[in-house]
Amino acid sequence: MSSSARWRHASCAAFTVLALLCTSALAGCSHACAPQGWPSSLRVQLTGAVDEVADVGLCVGDVCVPGEGEDPDPALLDLSGVTEHRAGNWEFTMLSTPAELTIRTYTAEGDVVTDTAVELEWHRVGGTARCGGPHAAVVTVEV
């Protein structure tokens, strides 16, 4: 092999190694976050006269889920779902993490038992600090 051929071969090999090093180094610098929403959970723990409560609603401003005495707007159902886990504990799933809201409790007849304004402390329970992720909060309401 001639010296110019060796030089081209060595130059090509060096360039390939340099390109691989740069690619792997830069790959660690770039981190794209997937554009998506995460379901966050809010646990409402009721204390006191829990037996009086047949339903629990979340209100932000004048909008409550579920709606009072009627089927809630389907658009609101996409934003929040509720499951009663056991007496006095209600778990809500939502795509937002409001700083404050009102917890409204209802009797089986639909009468309002309590209307309690609360401030929520959300804690990230998944994902990353950079890209975000699901959050959880717990609040206690006296009935």
From TrEMBL:
Record's keyword annotation contains Signal: yes
UniProt keywords, alphabetically: Signal
PROSITE patterns listed in its UniProt record: PROKAR_LIPOPROTEIN (PS51257)
Signal peptide: 1-27
Full protein name: Lipoprotein
Species of the source: Bogoriella caseilytica
Organism taxonomic ancestry: Bacteria, Bacillati, Actinomycetota, Actinomycetes, Micrococcales
